[in-house]
Amino acid sequence: MTVRTTGNAATTGCYQELQTIFTLTPPAGTDLRSFDLGYNAIVDRVATHVVIVTVGSDIAGESAGASTIGTISRDTVTNTVQPLHVDLGSGGRYHGFLSMITLGMQHIREGTDHQLFLLTLLLPAPLLARNRRWTGAVGARRALRRITSITVSFTLGHSVTLALGAVGVPVPQQLVEALIAVSILVAAAHAMRPLFPGREALIAAAFGLVHGLAFSEALRELHLSGAQLMLSLLGFNLGIEAMQLIIVVLVLPPLILLARANRYRTLRLVAAAATAVAAAGWLAARIGLPNTVANLADRIEILAIPVVLGLWLVALAITIRDRRQQASSTPSPVGLDQPNSDHHWSLLVNRLTGLPLAEIE
């Protein structure tokens, strides 16, 4: 067990790293290429810690270079750390690729700040911007095009810097984390009042470059190269995109329903304000000012499922109620022999033309 100084003074800063080299002796009769690796150092104490297991070299296998074979983390539901099954005989690269996809999905699922940036930027997507205010809802197709362009732009932005960071481009970690909090503040302000209407995709791409640098930290310490680095990078990125798509599919439909039902303003303002408060807490903490708001914001992940279920229930309930009200208020066919038929005709013309009733009558 040794301690060494590592890091970069200009980017991550210099810090002390504990390095331990140890030998594991398997029980007699164990298959040396297929076994369970039990490991719980740090993981049993820090819920967000993830151990990435790699093979430095496998002379007996197909690859003589480093390869990723899986991850070990704590299950936050059962609060247990399960061993990793290592099976070198069935192809380490395939299992490593799937593990990197899982790691990418986990990175977004636990990365509340990344989720909040994307979702907050999407909050006004179903709305029109007029006179520096968010007004009525746009059509479903237009809203879908906006949502798609914002999500794809964010993906392209962070994919570029994720790759650059993974291959060794210096990353000023503290600055990056602070800029992520700034990006959430900007998105929250835009959700309250239009700051860059119509240019959300451009903003998503620009801030995506910052978020990608943060994503790359999960891969930087693996010291992979060549085909294995490319494979791990692809798997990790696919995991990120898959989790983002799941989040968008779950959250955006009820938001569009609420926007079309004119019940969106309060929800949008409350969500944007709460996000801004969380982002301000994160920003303060990331520039060296620890605070309770940041600590609470780090734990809001547990509210994700109840919030999504609540959105769907409210959106469906309001939509069903509004349709029933519309059906009950639809006028019956007007006949000339009905009482007050002139007034009925006036109402009908008013609905079709928008002219004032007084002028029609």
Helix and strand arrangement:
Layout: E1 2-8, E2 13-19, E3 34-37, E4 50-55, E5 67-75, E6 80-81, E7 84-87, H1 92-110, H2 112-122, E8 127-130, E9 133-137, H3 140-166, H4 173-192, H5 200-220, H6 226-260, H7 265-286, H8 292-297, H9 304-329, H10 341-353, H11 357-360
Antiparallel strand pairs: 1-2, 3-7, 4-5, 5-6, 8-9
Report a brief summary of the structure.
The chain is an alpha+beta fold and 361 residues long.
- Distance between the amino and carboxyl termini: 94 Å
Order of helices and strands: EEEEEEEHHEEHHHHHHHHH
By DSSP, the count of extended strands is: 9
Number of helices: 11
For the biggest sheet, the summary is:
3 strands, antiparallel
Structural class: alpha+beta
Query: Helical content, roughly?
Result: 55-70%
Low-confidence stretches: 334-341
Protein name: HupE/UreJ family protein
InterPro entries: Put_HupE_UreJ
Keywords: Membrane, Transmembrane, Transmembrane helix
Transmembrane segments: 150-169, 175-192, 201-219, 231-257, 269-288, 300-320
Walk me through the structure.
This protein is of the alpha+beta class. The chain has a domain at 104-323. Helix content is 57%, strand content 13%. It is built from eleven helices and nine strands. It has helices at residues 92-110, 112-122, 140-166, 173-192, 200-220, 226-260, 265-286, 292-297, 304-329, 341-353, 357-360; strands at 2-8, 13-19, 34-37, 50-55, 67-75, 80-81, 84-87, 127-130, 133-137. The strands form four sheets. The protein has a three-stranded antiparallel β-sheet with strand order 4-5-6. A two-stranded antiparallel ribbon has the order 1-2. A hairpin with a 4-residue loop joins strand 1 (2-8) and strand 2 (13-19). It is elongated. 30% of the residues are buried. Mean pLDDT is 80; it is low at 334-341. Pfam families: HupE_UreJ_2 (PF13795). The chain crosses the membrane at residues 150-169, 175-192, 201-219, 231-257, 269-288, 300-320. It comes from Actinoplanes oblitus. InterPro entries: Put_HupE_UreJ.
